[in-house]
Write a structure and sequence with these properties.
The chain is 49% helix and 24% strand. By secondary structure, it is an alpha+beta fold. It has a six-stranded antiparallel sheet with strand order 3-2-1-6-5-4, with helices on both faces.
Amino acid sequence: MTSGEERRIQELELLYKISSILNQSLDFETVAHPVLQTVESVMGVEHATLTLYNRHTGEISIEIAEGLSSRQASKGRYKVGEGITGRVVETGKPIIIPSVAKDPDFLDRTGRGKTEDKAFLCVPIIMEQEVVGALSADEHNPDEANLNDQIHLLEIIAQMLGTAVKLRRQAREENEILKAEN
């Protein structure tokens, strides 16, 4: 078996695992962490992060992040078009940053570090032609030839997460409306 065939089998196993996790519950909290942990362990990435776009506030904020403290995650707030995540949410298109140290648009608000040997991959989460958030991850010592495969895999996973993210966003927005009314 060639390394390309082995990689494809790993990718299919990853997608199967994520599908199984998502089928366990409609509750976002129950499935989000296991999905991100699976992404990290199988893809070999770090800081897998889910950010959600709030239509009412216009803010994009980290909802769940592996390997970040709650303090770091709370700093991950962006306006549409701001930074890499903001641009992904604005355009609905994935972005690959091969070296975060060389890209001024990588804001590093969470303090993960802007090092030469770190790539940043970010893809939109789209549901019913609307961007509802973004899925991102860091890759240390990236093989640049492999980054396109990694981003494509993240796009598939983001599609799989779309329904869970949309339900979570609706619940959060309804809660905010109720708080505002009270």
